[in-house]
């Protein structure tokens, strides 16, 4: 298991370094104290630190010769995680096309559905309210423009 942890840590550090580097391609806004790159950079640094700690601790400990657990795609929880990942990827692809305002409540609703909730009215209300709160916080409190997709032609 020690080797699997070391390999995972190296992959995580490489991924976090690539994500950190990618943040330099984000659109820069004038007179904005905290730009859109801040949070992704903070997450990339946190991921790198965690992976580095995993790397060092497994480098220093003895190998216990136990096998690393495998991911079974037939496991319901793994299926939910993979489906959630798919939702996030589709959400990211649609964000600039159909706008933050339309993509986010749909993504939140689907994620709540994947988690097993079935109170559709409550799910819809949570999805719309959460989207509105996030939009207001970013646009008016932080001064960060959110992707408006095809709505930009109407504004």
State the main characteristics.
155 residues, mainly alpha, 5 helices
Description:
This protein is mainly alpha-helical and 155 residues long. The protein folds into two domains: 1-70; 73-155, no CATH class. The protein is 67% helix and 0% strand. The chain contains five helices and no strands. It has helices spanning 2-22, 38-60, 76-98, 100-114, 120-141. Helix 1 packs antiparallel against helix 2 (38-60). The longest helix is centred in the N-terminal third of the chain and has 23 residues, at 38-60. It is flat. The relative contact order is 0.12.
* Shape summary: flat
- Pairing-aware structural class of the strands and helices? mainly alpha
Average pLDDT, rounded to a whole number, is 90
Assembly category = single chain
N to C succession of SSEs = HHHHH
Strand segment tally: 0
Give a quick precis of the structure:
It contains 5 helices and no strands. By secondary structure, it is mainly alpha-helical. The longest helix has 23 residues, at 38-60.
Helix-strand blueprint:
Elements: H1 2-22, H2 38-60, H3 76-98, H4 100-114, H5 120-141
């Amino acid at each position: 298991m020690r080797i699997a942890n070391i390999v995972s840590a190296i992959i995580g550090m490489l991924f976090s370094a690539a994500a950190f580097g990618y943040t330099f391609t984000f659109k820069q806004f004038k007179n904005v104290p905290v730009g859109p790159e801040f949070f992704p950079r903070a997450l990339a640094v946190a991921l790198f630190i965690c992976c580095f700690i995993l790397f060092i601790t497994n480098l220093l400990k003895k190998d216990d010769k136990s096998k690393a657990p495998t991911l079974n795609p037939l496991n319901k929880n793994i299926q939910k995680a993979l489906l959630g990942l798919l939702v996030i990827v589709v959400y990211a692809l649609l964000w600039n096309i159909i706008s933050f305002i339309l993509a986010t409540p749909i993504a939140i609703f689907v994620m709540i559905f994947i988690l097993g909730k079935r109170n559709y009215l409550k799910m819809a209300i949570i999805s719309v309210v959460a989207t509105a709160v996030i939009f207001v916080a970013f646009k008016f409190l932080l001064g960060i423009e959110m992707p408006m997709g095809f709505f930009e032609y109407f504004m």
